[in-house]
Amino acid sequence: MSNVYKKVELVGSSLEGVDDAIARAIEKAGETIRNLDWFEVKEIRGWIENAEVQHTQVTLQVGFRLDD
Amino acid sequence: MSNVYKKVELVGSSLEGVDDAIARAIEKAGETIRNLDWFEVKEIRGWIENAEVQHTQVTLQVGFRLDD
Amino acid sequence: MSNVYKKVELVGSSLEGVDDAIARAIEKAGETIRNLDWFEVKEIRGWIENAEVQHTQVTLQVGFRLDD
Amino acid sequence: MSNVYKKVELVGSSLEGVDDAIARAIEKAGETIRNLDWFEVKEIRGWIENAEVQHTQVTLQVGFRLDD
Amino acid sequence: MSNVYKKVELVGSSLEGVDDAIARAIEKAGETIRNLDWFEVKEIRGWIENAEVQHTQVTLQVGFRLDD
Amino acid sequence: MSNVYKKVELVGSSLEGVDDAIARAIEKAGETIRNLDWFEVKEIRGWIENAEVQHTQVTLQVGFRLDD
Amino acid sequence: MSNVYKKVELVGSSLEGVDDAIARAIEKAGETIRNLDWFEVKEIRGWIENAEVQHTQVTLQVGFRLDD
Amino acid sequence: MSNVYKKVELVGSSLEGVDDAIARAIEKAGETIRNLDWFEVKEIRGWIENAEVQHTQVTLQVGFRLDD
Amino acid sequence: MSNVYKKVELVGSSLEGVDDAIARAIEKAGETIRNLDWFEVKEIRGWIENAEVQHTQVTLQVGFRLDD
Amino acid sequence: MSNVYKKVELVGSSLEGVDDAIARAIEKAGETIRNLDWFEVKEIRGWIENAEVQHTQVTLQVGFRLDD
Amino acid sequence: MSNVYKKVELVGSSLEGVDDAIARAIEKAGETIRNLDWFEVKEIRGWIENAEVQHTQVTLQVGFRLDD
Amino acid sequence: MSNVYKKVELVGSSLEGVDDAIARAIEKAGETIRNLDWFEVKEIRGWIENAEVQHTQVTLQVGFRLDD
Fold first, then answer.
1. Is A26's CB within 8 Å of B51's CB?
2. What Å distances lie between residue I14 and A35, H22, I24, I47, I55, CA to CA?
3. Where do the domains of chain B lie?
4. CATH fourth-level superfamily of J5-65
5. What secondary structure does DSSP assign to chain E, as a single string?
6. Does K55 touch chain G if contact means CB atoms closer than 8 Å?
7. ipTM of the predicted structure?
8. K5-63 per-position pLDDT tens digit
9. Which residue is closest to A4 within chain I, CA to CA?
């Protein structure tokens, strides 16, 4: 109940769009961080090639519980 | 032309992603509010379970015309 | 390497959702602007009709390289 | 002295300008809310027709004292 | 899991300080709103009399689950 | 319904005040831009001479529909 | 050309509206400060009585040149 | 009713916490400024020593009525 | 004098209030990080149960000196 | 005195630093825009290669007077 | 340790660039204010003449310790 | 192309100015982090001694590619 959490800032990118970029960032975070709890989207941007969205980048803060 | 509008702040959530969370919040608002006119996304966040996005939460302000 | 870029602000709209509204704005920009390079989402909003999202509007800044 | 207040967000619009749009939103709020106490302007925008301001829209938060 | 929440904006005030002003706003909200779930502090301000803090005002957004 | 809009940023100034500065910026924009649709006020400032407001400057973003 | 300026923050209020509240704050500042040069509006708010705007308050930063 | 107010920005600090840091800043301001009327908290930060909060710093804007 | 610092973002929570939540986050950080130097409060929020604040959550950035 | 200005958003980049990146963006703007009057820095960022700043990018808004 | 600080807002300008404009504002402040302790950059802007930066203006808040 | 990036927040300081403080923070980061890619300036501040800038502090977020 009185846990302490830490937040890290990640940028996920995807060829498909916003939701997939979020999923990729969290999946990657899960490889090295335990107890992932929530995320907050900070920025959505992306790169363009030949006048088409090449990939979408979502910056998010991911919160996780610090072990006792 | 010189109408007065009111805005309420809602949080929709979805297992599918941003667009669906918006749709759910507006559908719910429509059950009790008439004349819904526009929405503005204020925040996108979400909850994680086992290193996967469990559901996405979108906070939005929904504007509706007050009856004369 | 020391290029100068310009940014223009566009609003794309779509019946399908956020990703599609981004794509439409960039496709339109590509008709008249060369060297489109990146975009930044500034605002997500939309219009409602009969308590359903009618279309989603995404305001974005699109950056492009100025020709030498 | 230790009252609790509530704030609602309204959008007033006027053919005349900023001050009149504020007045209209507050007059409308007064029809259904007692003890209106203060307002805060959040946004000023408007609609254009034939290159003239058609009407000015002011978004404001209006605070009122909750009855004991 | 896919609930919709609503947020209302309240201002609590207290002769004692920040924590007590939060508590008073939430207690008041609980008299008329069910399913209160979380709060977010938006602003801390207050009134001064004879060069002493007379009371502290905390503006908060309070989120609650809409009934199904 | 799925139009793309562009926004330009203008600064209008007036000896009379906020509403007139908005009107002047939009009138000027209308000389070269078709399909002006809405404006958003970004900043209000001004210049002072002999302790009187000399003129008021309003920065606004003006949105217009791109031709198909 | 390489002057140093100072900014002070003032709140003007008026029974008439935004432009007049700006003018009053600057007129007052001019009684004690020389070389007033520009102002920037930071906030517009006001007090309500009997569901009518009682007076409008405009917070502004006023810049003036420091004497050499 | 149509008074002009000035705001000054102060930083109070305290070994005890947020409320006490606010009180100290206002008490200090009261030594040289008359007619103090309200405060707005702008920032809460602090210094750490040996992994304990040494003192809490609260930045606030304090408003006071200018004499006629 | 020309040190480099790093900042991490933590969320402390407490049954008692803002000051205690700050203290808990810093105490926890001190278990694994040396040379903690300052903190900045970014957000105050909390969870509610039965119309009472259950615990207060304070998000802070904590700065520490990197070893040479 | 009652001129209308337009602002465009540019990104200058430089191998030397902030001041030079500003100068390059303005020099480039001057090739196609007359009556350039002022600039406002919106963002400073840059690219890194081999742990050294490769070039610094400054985003600025540049204001110019529209011809009568 | 429990000092109270005051912050004033200054604008320094320089023909050379950002660092020099900061230095000039602080040097000027030092002529009339004792115990200057820190500064925070709030805005960087400047004036253009003949498509060259004429001088750079940096707005900063300067903090100083109030005497006991 | 679909990489995930992490951002860390650093504060560099320098006796010389903004550009040098950025360079020092990035050089330090490069000692322990591989694949540094970009930086974003978040805040510029500094410490004053005897009415002169003692050193300039630049807070930046530094982004780097996570290894696959």
1. yes
2. 20, 21, 8, 10, 5
3. 5-65
4. Flavin-binding protein dodecin (3.30.1660.10)
5. ----EEEEEEEEEESS-HHHHHHHHHHHHHTT-SSEEEEEEEEEEEEEETTEEEEEEEEEEEEEEPP-
6. yes
7. 0.95
8. 999 999 999 999 999 999 999 999 999 999 999 999 999 999 999 999 999 999 999 99
9. I12
